[in-house]
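Researcher: Predict the fold of Glycosyltransferase family 4 protein.
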Amino acid sequence: MHICHINLASSYHGGENQTFELIQQQIRNGYEVTALANPKGPLYARLLTIDCTVHPIRHHLLNHTHNFLNKCDLLHVHEGRAVYWALIQKAIFGTPYIITRRIDNPISSKWITRQAYQQASALVGLSKPITQQLKKISKLQAVLRIPSSPVSYPVSEDNVKIIQQQFAGKFLVLQAANMLKHKGFDTSIKAAKQLNSDYPNIHFCFIGDGSERHHLEQQATNLKNITFVGKQSNMGDWFHAADLLVHPSHSEGLGSVILEGMKAGLPVVGSNAGGIPDIIHHEHTGLLTTTGCGETLASNIIRLYNDPALRGQLVNNAHRYLNEVSIESCAEKYEQVYLNAVDNACLVKGKQQKSLKGNIPN
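Model: Structure tokens for Glycosyltransferase family 4 protein follow.
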């Protein structure tokens, strides 16, 4: 099977990481893979290092003058603007496509956006809230849920020791995300204020950068239990040096960093928002907190700080859960989606050809 993946993002976040991991697994499974990516984005550079054909696409309106994908069976769209590229490609050449959506906010009501989703052969969401949004816009195509798979990062024991020395004697709580309003760093700061006096050994480390960073640093003024370390390229080292991962987002499609923390052996605490409850099953694979409530986040952190046995239990349960969402499992699920989409596209094409023949006069 020859699949073309499309992700035109100019940045590199969880969605791009998942696109890359799926492509790698499909290559291992014997697929022929083509990828379309923004040449200014980090994903494009990473794709050049693996065994797939990569084409630069700078804009969803460009590169439709010739069908360089004539050997592809299906397009797999991974990013918002790419849905329009796939829609145009289908209109010109009839190439079927599927869409994977990673955010749980409502889909635009614009006519062109609705057309892009309704012309897809199948719609895939990472979590229940996302599939609910997809069902509101779908026509007759299938709407399925295929969660992200956990990603592992390399670990340097020397780097881990450096981090541990930097926070010696601390119970290190990580939050790693782009510093945007909906990511809930403000909730973590509220929790830090609650813990600052009575639990000086609990220390928050914020990994990431973004438009909210300056405002968050102002909120954390005079708090000695928070350190902002900016973006980090060695997440494997940070995961292994830490004791706990928190992800108190106000909204979230799924939360791939939670899966990454679980994979690295960290207990996790997340908010009861968006798709997070799909992967954090309360009291089983992690703990859930009230969205936006620093007090409940603080109490859950205290609970895990005081209960090493519970931390171990959550980690063990999470590892068993991760086996169900491995990249191998996700690739198998996508293969079935692809086969159904291609079969349906051939069926529709056959009906159209039959109809055209029936209209040709004798």
